[in-house]
């Protein structure tokens, strides 16, 4: 499903992602702006109606870390619009359903992986 907000399928609306977001979902954009669940769905709906991402994108440096029995942190670098952003998404699982609780994007200079010496 990742990158969650960058791969619309034909005919998809932003609101089709509604079941994938927990009721208390929120995100921090690359600008540092905080977005609510509702604003996120509205923005995605507009983006998808406009045809979705119009430029190629790719991901690198993907990693998944288990936080607890039902919670996982997925991290990656998204290369999009000539810039790289480090992304972090918290996924939770209830029964067989995966849902997103939180998402954050942070602009990075070169998209290189983090220095393992600085990771706790």
Describe this structure in words.
With 120 residues, the chain is mainly beta. The chain has a domain at 20-47 and 55-109: Nuclear Transport Factor 2, Chain: A. The protein is built from one helix and six strands; from the N terminus they run E-E-H-E-E-E-E. The chain has one helix spanning 37-49; strands spanning 21-28, 34-36, 57-68, 71-80, 83-94, 97-108. It has a six-stranded mixed beta sheet with strand order 2-1-6-5-4-3. Strand 4 and strand 5 form a beta hairpin. The protein is globular. The two termini are 28 Å apart. 15% of the residues are buried. The model has no long low-confidence stretch (mean pLDDT 84).
CATH 2nd-level architecture of the domain at 20-47 and 55-109: Roll
CATH class of the domain at 20-47 and 55-109: Alpha Beta
Number of strands: 6
Q: Structural class of the secondary elements?
A: mainly beta
Succession of helices and strands: EEHEEEE
Query: Number of helix segments?
Result: 1
Mean pLDDT: 84
State the separation between the terminal residues, measured CA to CA: 28 Å
Shape: globular
Short description:
The chain is mainly beta. The chain has one helix at 37-49, and strands at 21-28, 34-36, 57-68, 71-80, 83-94, 97-108.
Summary keywords:
mainly beta; globular; 11% helix; Nuclear Transport Factor 2, Chain: A; 1 helix; 6 strands; 120 residues
Task: Furnish the topology, listing elements before pairings.
Blueprint: E1 21-28, E2 34-36, H1 37-49, E3 57-68, E4 71-80, E5 83-94, E6 97-108
Parallel strand pairs: 1-6
Antiparallel strand pairs: 1-2, 3-4, 4-5, 5-6
């Amino acid at each position: 499903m990742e990158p969650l907000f960058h791969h619309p399928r034909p005919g998809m609306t932003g609101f089709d992602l509604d079941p994938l977001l927990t009721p208390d979902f929120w995100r921090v954009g690359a600008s540092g702006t905080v977005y609510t669940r509702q604003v996120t769905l509205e923005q995605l709906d507009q983006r998808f109606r406009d045809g979705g991402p119009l430029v190629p994108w790719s991901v690198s440096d993907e990693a998944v870390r288990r936080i607890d029995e039902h919670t996982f942190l997925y991290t990656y670098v998204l290369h999009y619009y000539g810039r790289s952003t480090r992304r972090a998404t918290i996924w939770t699982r209830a029964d067989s359903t995966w849902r997103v609780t939180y998402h954050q994007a942070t602009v990075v200079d070169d998209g290189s992986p983090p220095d393992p010496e600085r990771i706790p």
